[in-house]
Amino acid sequence: MSLILGLESSCDETAAALVRDGHEVLAERVASQAELHARFGGVIPEVASRSHLEVIFPVIQTCLDEAGVTLAEVDGVAVTNQPGLIGCLLVGLSTAKGFALALDLPLIPVNHVHAHVYGALMGGEDAGGAAGNGPTAPESAPWPLASLVVSGGHTTLYESGGPQVHRPIGRTLDDAAGEAYDKVSALLGLGYPGGPLLDKLAADGDPKAYAFPRPLPSDSLDFSFSGLKTAVLYALRGPQGRDPLPADLVPADVAASFQAAAVDVLAKRLLQAARRIQAGGLVVCGGVAANSGLRARLKLEAERAGLPLFMPPMRLATDNAVMVAGLGHHVQRAGHTADLSLDALPRGD
Ligand code: KG4
Ligand code: ZN
To answer: Residue 195 and residue 180: Cα distance in Å, rounded?
Structure first.
């Protein structure tokens, strides 16, 4: 049995979790900075790092209290050390090093993107249709998996051969899908983060109201979202993109039509990737994996293709430390612990 303390601070969520044996969650906490960044319409790295510093110890303490365990019972500290905003990563990493040094614990480096994929395998109450929603041990997952990591910073397809083996096979050539959601939300004056707001609004709109483009660059598994974002801009604010918003604008129709285009592209590419690598299953993870339209469409497509679909439960779609502590268990078992010279890396896939 091993109890891992996981820490996550790569972007705008400060998170800690205590997870036993890679799947049993004893406590979890996420302090979101969304409100702090809302007035800027995006994450300000300096503001984010300072906020991580302020809350990381209270977040860890709350987890320990909730789980009713002491630091003496912890067997290792797993921390996201890549990829992410460098100042943000350093807060989690320095904290983890402090614990590792003071308590003589193994320091376990975790790749944030790999952790998202692992989080999808952990299952949960409203997770994907695979394996009866329970956790799928890495030993019994149907590797290789076609994994779509889709968030505010990433839109990448991987051929996943194991918990720590992810080969990129397609990526966005410009904006990430979550970024496109956030920008369209800003265009409509809705707020930040835009994904959940647009998702909710889309439920009341007509997905056919606007024929937005569905760019799928040929001969590759790459994505492009800047054309879609620009098409929304021109549809709302004219060919120069500077006109005032039309008085009779129905924001729900824009949201539904945008979401239909984004989901279509993401789903088609994931299925195409699965066929190409002869995948044994599908994974979708990252903040946009919380999208109701994407979840519903992928469930349908997975059933049609006869493939299990692994999705994180809603609460584990966006950044969290459960996935970090979970994967950390396997990283430690594989002997991939680090010494105190471990670096934070802004890129890492
Ligand atoms: O994984 P995450 O928490 O942080 C990054 O690593 O980026 O993802 C955040 C992104 C944001 O762009 C947010 O708008 C998007 O995920 N997001 C959604 C939904 N919930 C969060 N996008 C679409 N629909 C949602 N329901
Ligand atoms: Zn993330």
So the answer is: 9
